[in-house]
UniProtKB/TrEMBL annotation:
Belongs to the pseudouridine synthase RluA family. One of its GO terms (molecular function) is RNA binding. CDD domains: PseudoU_synth_RluA_like. It comes from Treponema porcinum. Residues 15-161 form the Pseudouridine synthase RsuA/RluA-like domain. GO terms for biological process: enzyme-directed rRNA pseudouridine synthesis. This is 23S rRNA pseudouridine1911/1915/1917 synthase. Gene3D superfamilies: Pseudouridine synthase.
Length: 252
């Protein structure tokens, strides 16, 4: 079986590199698993020393920015701290929201339980804000756009869970981790259920787009990370069956 590449390069110059990472890969050192595979270590083989300026969850795929020097790191980090960077995620959830948009403002405390999950904690939690938009529903599933205004660990996942929605194949915040299969979507599916491979068997959350100011040129950059193969296959099948497409929605 051909191995999924750890990352593809979206943009690179003397100051920054923007990568599209696979699900299941850390972007920097982790205190719980020092030996886990890391994106910064792998990418350094191609780009040299890299400085992390923000994070996305290990199980999330998609766009990540690294600085290539200390000055770029300082300026980019300041943009994230001042919430000047706009981040857009796409996710597939179980169920159908009754809202078109949802503003969530719930303080979050990372590592808040025995499973090291992030929890809502109004006394000790840090301010955490996410804006959600329903892109469209596909039978028993829905595509949702998430724009986190803060950058807490597992923020999107927890804010959705607190409002009754779980992301498909979420190993931490969902009671339903069953892989998504085409046989469950198509009424007239005629394949072999015993040999059928899942369309999607990992967290259906993708860091799709990011907008920020280049630390050296001052240019406003908006960059997108194409869906990985499993999410792309899922997108195409759902678009074909239910006529709902999160990528086409972006261009409207």
């Amino acid at each position: 079986m051909k191995k999924t590449p750890d990352y593809t390069t979206i943009y690179s110059d003397d100051d920054i590199v923007v990568l599209n990472k696979r699900s299941g890969l850390l972007i920097a050192a982790d205190r719980y698993d020092a030996d886990a595979p890391r994106l910064d270590v792998e990418a350094a083989k191609e780009f040299g020393r890299l400085f992390a300026v923000h994070r996305i969850d290990k199980d999330t795929s998609g766009i990540i920015i690294y600085a290539k020097n200390e000055e770029a790191h300082k300026l980019l980090s300041a943009q994230f701290e001042k919430r000047l960077v706009e981040k857009t995620y796409h996710c597939l959830v179980h169920g159908k929201p009754m809202w078109d948009t949802l503003h969530v403002d719930l303080p979050l405390l990372p590592d808040g339980d025995m499973r090291h999950r992030t929890v809502v904690n109004k006394r000790f939690g840090k301010p955490s804000v996410t804006d959600f938009r329903l892109i469209g529903s596909c039978g028993g599933y829905s595509w949702i756009e998430a724009k986190p205004k803060t950058g807490r660990t597992h923020q999107i996942r927890v804010h959705l869970a607190e409002n009754g929605f779980s992301i498909v194949c979420d190993p931490l915040y969902s009671g339903n981790q069953k892989p998504l299969r085409l046989s469950e979507l198509k009424r007239n599916w005629h394949g072999d259920e015993d040999s059928e491979k899942p369309l999607l068997s990992r967290l259906a959350l993708h860091a799709y787009k990011i907008s920020f100011t280049h630390p050296k040129t001052g240019e406003c950059l908006t960059l997108c990370a194409p869906y990985p193969k499993d999410m792309e296959a899922t997108r195409k099948q759902l678009a074909k069956i239910f006529k709902v497409d999160p990528i086409e929605d972006e261009t409207k």
